């Protein structure tokens, strides 16, 4: 049993006014069981000297810190959250018992059981940090002694009178269920803990499905070949008319004329403009053209 209580509100290393910290807590928003238990202890808290009471909305059970918000990159924080989510998939919700109140060196607190279950929960959160930052990133800490503080001592005082008062005015115990843990940004200014919730993770639920990767940048669809009624595919140049391609060629401006096979062209005979496909026997679009065709008019 402790002999003296001490001021809780001295500045810990690296803390300063206005600085905030990422940490995992169990919170009790709108929990009727915890609300009733807090009310049952109000008479005791109000009767104790040298204490800073914790309002109902700021009740919490500390689990595991991550780091100061000005030092933890958002990308790393997201990875730690994802790692914690994976590790908690098979960690089912469980009941806890709070109370009765005891005098600790720095607070009037409600011990919380089962201790082993809460320590295993904390171990998963610590492991999530090492998943991202490595095994040496989380310093060894004292074993977790889970509790919910009803108030913090704000000056040194003998502990014995406080023990006697707590024993005489106990507020009992309560049982509730833990279904979520919450990552918060915590401040401790003006002898008061306050926070903003960052995210909450359910216990015993699989992580949400990973979103599919974004589609590749839009590629324009190649234009379809011009319709050519009555023609099927490319036809070789008509015999006896060098350079003359079929009506499906790109030289659609060349009129079709009847062929005179018995009469070869003579000097001065007008030779129509021809497509490059007719002269080069090019089987189709060159590799990498994505199916597009290049007009050969004037290319020869």
TrEMBL record:
> What segment(s) does the record annotate as region Disordered?
198-300
The answer to whether UniProt assigns keyword Ligase to this entry is yes
The answer to whether the entry has keyword Glycosyltransferase is no
Pfam family membership, one: 2_5_RNA_ligase2
Pro residues bias spans: 204-228
Extract the GO molecular function terms from the UniProt entry: ligase activity
Signal sequence, start to end? none
Transmembrane annotation, as ranges = none
Print the keywords alphabetically.
Ligase
Classification via InterPro entries? Cyclic_Pdiesterase
Protein known as:
2'-5' RNA ligase family protein
């Amino acid at each position: 049993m402790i002999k003296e209580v001490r001021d809780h509100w001295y500045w810990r290393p690296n803390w300063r006014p206005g600085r905030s910290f990422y940490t995992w807590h169990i919170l009790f928003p709108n929990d009727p069981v915890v609300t009733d238990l807090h009310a049952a202890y109000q008479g005791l808290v109000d009767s104790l000297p040298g204490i800073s009471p914790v309002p109902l909305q700021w009740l919490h059970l500390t689990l595991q810190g991550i780091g100061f918000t000005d030092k933890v990159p958002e990308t790393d924080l997201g990875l730690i959250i994802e790692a914690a989510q994976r590790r908690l998939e098979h960690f089912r919700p469980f009941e806890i018992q709070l109370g009765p109140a005891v005098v600790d060196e720095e607070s009037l607190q409600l011990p919380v059981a089962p201790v082993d279950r809460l320590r295993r929960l904390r171990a998963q959160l610590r492991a999530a940090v090492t998943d991202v930052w490595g095994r040496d990133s989380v310093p060894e800490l004292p074993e977790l002694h889970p509790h919910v503080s009803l108030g913090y001592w704000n000056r040194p005082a003998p502990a014995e009178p406080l023990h006697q008062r707590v024993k005489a005015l106990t507020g009992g115990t309560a049982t509730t269920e833990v279904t979520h843990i919450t990552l918060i940004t915590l401040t401790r200014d003006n002898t008061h803990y306050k926070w903003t919730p960052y995210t909450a993770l359910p216990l015993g639920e699989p992580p949400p499905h990973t979103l599919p990767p974004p589609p590749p940048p839009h590629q324009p669809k190649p234009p379809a070949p011009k319709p050519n009624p009555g023609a099927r595919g490319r036809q070789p140049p008509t015999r006896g008319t060098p350079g003359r391609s079929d009506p499906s060629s790109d030289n659609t401006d060349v009129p079709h004329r009847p062929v005179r096979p018995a009469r070869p062209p003579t000097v001065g005979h007008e030779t129509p403009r021809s497509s490059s496909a007719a002269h080069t026997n090019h089987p189709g679009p060159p590799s990498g053209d994505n199916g597009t065709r290049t007009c050969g008019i004037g290319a020869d």
